[in-house]
Write a structure and sequence with these properties.
heterodimer; A: MetI-like fold; flat; B: D-Maltodextrin-Binding Protein, domain 2; D-Maltodextrin-Binding Protein, domain 2; nine-stranded mixed β-sheet
Chain lengths: ~220, ~270
């Protein structure tokens, strides 16, 4: 086989388009993160609630979304749903799939966090006359979030990586752009290499940010 | 501080990655070696074919590869190794077929590769073995009847396919939605995400026949040849392929394969 000639200029030429893709990767991941955290927490609280139907529904949800490939979920929402129910454009489909998927994982982490809050805390909250909402809002959830935080961080990093799968429904994010460029200029090494560096930068910044937040949390709640 | 140390080690890892990449690229050692000898030594020919592109390369209900390109691949295998069963088929897409060839995953591409100048820079092409323009697949009731009608519409295309550039030129106001495989592009039209799908005429004709809710629109535009492709610089191998194509035309093999897969579209096609 012929030795590969490295063409650095190809990365340079690809950079604006790759940056566009990276921007969408960051955007959709960030939105899915926020929504996934909110939905995940809501699911976890429901799973701890007194309503049996709620508990059952949450565990069914979590099992379905954790035990099926994300790619299938993306295709189901984008290609499948329009035939029966509703047509969501690519961005909405991708965002929905990423949110639902990461919410299932977050729900499990939050649930573990909620369960790890000592019983005495609940009893103390109850005995000082807090309502159920106040108890959750001021006593239980803050502690659960702190306990859950490191594991949540892992989920968020996975989410950024998983966001590459929405390239399959034509979302012009980093993975899609890398394919698009290398399928036309055939410089796979340079282009995918540049995309790898982009992903690494995004995730390094994210985990650095998470580490900062984690330290703040420990201090604030210590 | 432990966090800082972690940060430092990450930067170090990144630097190591860059250094590794550099090391991999340094010495341009070795000569271009003919794949011909490699195939004979291995006693197996690895061919990249389509699985989503009837009637050139698709998979039947029993999971068997079928199509024009598949039969050509078996012919080549039989000619070189004496047995078509010594051909190993690898499923490729318009996007990944050339990277597969470049990275040595396959020996040769027989997968509806349209010959163009950009691709000639990175692979060796055989003489054209089929001539194809592009057509438009639309839902039955669509008002689209010509390439010009695609302006302002959402048009599904295949990532890495030549229609991407063609459409940018012929219908610059069309929004191009790119998918990895033909099946996904068709699903996108059926689901209403795209108003039309533009691809090679022969594929669109076949799809229109298979999907009664759709039709082929327009006249084939930009007819160009399909070529078999091998790695850049492998002149010995491509000469062998050309000789085989010539032989297949002379002894009626090509005619037989054409009749088998393309007879139903005879009227709308150009024979090269």
């Amino acid at each position: 086989m012929k030795a590969y000639e490295f063409h650095f200029i190809e990365i340079w030429k690809a950079l604006p388009y790759l940056t566009e893709g990276a921007a969408l990767t960051i955007g959709i991941s960030f939105l899915a993160m926020l929504l996934g955290l909110v939905v995940g927490l809501a699911l976890a609280l429901t799973s701890q609630g007194s309503l049996r139907v709620g508990r059952w529904a949450v565990s069914a949800y979590v099992e379905i979304f954790r035990n099926t490939p994300l790619l299938i979920q993306i295709f189901f929402i984008y290609f499948g749903l329009p035939l029966l129910l509703v047509k969501l454009p690519a961005f909405a489909s991708g965002l929905l799939a990423l949110t639902l998927y990461s919410a299932a994982y977050n729900a499990e982490v939050f649930r573990a966090g909620l369960e790890a809050v000592p019983r005495g805390q609940r009893e103390a909250a109850r005995s000082t006359g807090l309502t159920a909402w106040q108890e959750a809002r001021h006593v239980i959830v803050p502690q659960a979030v702190r306990i859950s935080f490191p594991a949540l961080g892992n989920n968020l990093v996975s989410l950024v990586k998983n966001s590459s799968l929405v390239s399959a429904i034509g979302m012009v994010e980093l993975m899609f752009v890398a394919n698009d460029i290398s399928f036309n200029n055939f410089r796979s090494f340079e282009v995918y290499g540049a995309a790898v560096v982009y992903y690494m930068i995004i995730i390094l910044v994210l985990s650095r940010g998470l580490a900062l937040v984690e330290r703040r949390l420990q201090k604030a709640l210590a | 501080m432990p966090t800082d140390r972690r940060w430092f080690s990450r930067v170090l890892a990144l630097a190591a990655l860059v250094a590794l990449a550099g090391a991999l690229l340094l010495p341009p050692a070795g000569e271009t070696q003919s794949t011909l000898g490699e195939i004979k030594k291995r006693d197996k020919m690895i061919v990249g074919v389509k699985t989503d592109f009837p009637p050139f390369g698709s998979v039947d209900a029993s999971g068997k590869n079928i199509g024009f390109d598949i039969d050509v691949a078996y012919e080549l295998g039989k000619a070189m190794l004496g047995d078509p069963r010594k051909v190993e088929l690898v499923s490729v897409t318009s996007g990944n077929r050339i990277p597969y060839l470049q990275s040595g995953k396959i020996d040769i591409i027989v997968a509806t590769v349209t010959i163009n100048d950009e691709r000639k820079k990175v692979v060796e092409f055989s003489e054209p073995y089929f001539l194809s323009g592009a057509l438009i697949l639309v839902p039955k009731a669509s008002p689209i009847n010509d390439v010009k009608d695609l302006n302002g519409k959402k048009v599904a295309i295949i990532q890495g396919a030549i229609t991407d550039a063609d459409l940018a030129e012929l219908a610059p106001q069309a929004t191009r939605l790119k998918y990895g495989k033909v099946t996904e592009a068709v699903l996108a039209v059926k689901a209403g995400h795209a108003d039309a799908f533009v691809q090679d005429d022969i594929l669109i004709l076949k799809l229109a026949k298979e999907n009664p809710d759709m039709r082929a629109a327009g006249k084939p535009f930009y007819p160009r040849g399909y070529g078999i492709a091998v790695r850049k610089g492998d002149v010995e191998f491509i000469n062998w392929v050309n000789a085989q194509l010539k032989r297949m035309r002379a002894d009626g093999t090509y005619e037989r394969i054409w009749k088998k897969h393309l007879a139903e579209f005879e009227a709308s096609l150009v024979k090269p």
